[in-house]
Structures are given as C-alpha cells and as structure tokens.
C-alpha cells in the first residue's frame, strides 16, 4: 500500500475518537446484589429465657403458716423473672445457714440457682446462689419486717422482685371506706372502691375522717386482690326516752306482818307447854319415888294410899310427855310463821 493511502486510513480512524465528548458507556455486565446486614450474634454467655430452675429456701424462727405463705409468694414472683423456668421448694436439713448447705440442697433437687430468705430479729435477708459455680449472684436486705404473715410475705416478694425481676412486680389493691373518709396510698389520693396496681411490698394507707388522721400498713401481694374494708363509723347512741314513756317500776308487794306475830305467839305457847311439861315431869318423878319407898318399907306390899300415889305419878308422866310433844310441834310452827313468810 502506498504511504499516502496508509496515512489517510490512520487519520480516518483516529479523528472520530479524538472528537468524542460523551462519557464512555459502562460495560453491559450485571452487578452483584448488595448483601443485607444481619443482626449481631448474641454472646453465648447470656442464658436463654425461662431455662433456669430455682429452688426456694426460707430460714428463720417463723410459724409454719408464715413460712409456707412466704414460700408460695416467692414462687409466684419468681415466675415473672425472665430467666426462671420454675421455682420449687427445697427440702434442706435444719439448721441450714451456710452456703455449702444451700448448694448441696440445690444440687440434690437438680436446680440451677437457690434463693434463700432468712428472717431473724425483724430483719429479712435474701440471697441468690448459683449451684454450678458455687457463687453468690445477688443479695438484698430489709429491716423492721413484721412477722405478720401478709406483711412478711409482701416484704419477701419485694426483695425477690428487686433481685430477679427487672421489670418489677405489681399487685392489685382495692380499699372500701365509708362515705366521708379520705384515703391516700403512699401519698397519692385513692378513691373508695377504686382498683389500683401498685408494686408488691408493704405500703402506707393514710385514713382521714373529719379531724381524725390515722395510718395503716397495707401489704400487697402479687397473686391476689389485696382488698381492705374499713369499718363504718359507730352508730350514734339512741336518744333518751321521754320521762312519760318510762313505765314506773311496780311497787314491792308488802310483806304480811301477821305471820310473824302469829309465829311469836306460837313460840310463846310452845315455851309455856314445855314449862308445864317440866312441872308434870317433876311431879311424876316425885310420886313414883314416894310410892317406891313405901313399897320397900311395907315389905314389898303397896298400901291403898301408895297405889294412889303410884297412879298419880304415872298420869303426871303421861301428861309431861304429851306437853313436850306439843311444845315441839308449836315451836316448829312458830319458826315457820316467823321466818318463812
């Protein structure tokens, strides 16, 4: 090819490329789609929800009714814990006041954690111990706790909620009061019959009736409606009955005085009869003695005069006996008339 033709061919191919002002087109190759962002992987150390079995142990000099109620209250609150699967009651030998004993009781029951509530001298202490690592996870304490079942259980529920339930635990409260009584619970006005959800524990109820102000502790438990009914004010005393309406008391029946007089007279007659009987008794004794002496003097033979004396003595003896009997009867009759009527 001639040199002149070759130059013309090169210029024909180069001039269009040098004059191009538009950006070059990208190659028709499809891009790879962007990968979506995945959430970060949670660390394996965080326990999954609801997988830990907790053992409940209550210690201290508490009546059986208080201990059993506190155990059930703790089990109810532990169900709200995000990591607790269930709560069981531990059977531990008494006394069991050391962590080693708690861990042994938890291992025997095959639980992951043990929550211990110890009540002593008005102080309630609560600890959470991990059985596998043998370490104490948390603890809390509350002073001036009453041993009344509801108040002790409410305080225990509040401590357990503080340790294991970050979201908190509540209970329902309803207070009924008579008309005119003002109520406030922990400083907030509470209407009579109003239902309110409050944190578990022991709350202070303020009661104002007229000029009278009083405070009352109100325990709130989780698994029940904590209802309280305040008594109605005492009814006013009934008005005094008018004088005209009061029936006069019946006059006492007068005692009959003639019976006492008759009793005295009868007693006097009895004394007289007794005196006469003594006279005839003495006469009878004298006549009988005289007849007996004459009988011995006459050689064992009674003379006619001696027989008269003997008969007179016997007659006087009979008369004396009759008078004595009559005197006794009259004396008894006189006593009856005098004292019985």
CATH class of the largest domain: Alpha Beta
Inertia-based shape: rod-shaped
The number of helical segments is 6
Helical content, roughly?
25-40%
According to CATH, the homologous superfamily of the largest domain is TolB, N-terminal domain
Look at the helices and sheets and give the structural class: alpha/beta
The biggest beta sheet is recorded as: 5 strands, mixed
Which terms would index this structure?
24% strand; 6 helices; four-stranded antiparallel beta sheet; alpha/beta; 12 strands; 341 residues; 3 domains; Rossmann fold; single chain
Helix-strand blueprint:
Layout: H1 3-18, E1 52-60, H2 64-78, E2 84-89, H3 99-108, E3 113-120, E4 123-130, E5 135-142, H4 149-164, E6 170-176, E7 181-185, E8 188-190, E9 195-199, E10 201-209, E11 212-220, E12 225-229, H5 258-297, H6 304-339
Parallel strand pairs: 1-2, 1-3, 6-12
Antiparallel strand pairs: 3-4, 4-5, 6-9, 7-8, 7-10, 10-11
Structure description:
The chain has helices at residues 3-18, 64-78, 99-108, 149-164, 258-297, 304-339; strands at 52-60, 84-89, 113-120, 123-130, 135-142, 170-176, 181-185, 188-190, 195-199, 201-209, 212-220, 225-229. It is of the alpha/beta class and 341 residues long. It folds into 3 domains: 52-168, 3-Layer(aba) Sandwich (Rossmann fold); 171-229, no CATH class; 258-339. The strands form 3 sheets. The protein has a 5-stranded mixed sheet, sandwiched between helices. The chain has a 4-stranded antiparallel sheet with strand order 8-7-10-11. Strands 9-6-12 form a 3-stranded mixed sheet, with no helix packed on it. Helix 2 (64-78) packs parallel to helix 4 (149-164). The protein is rod-shaped and about 230 Å long. It starts with a helix and ends with a helix.
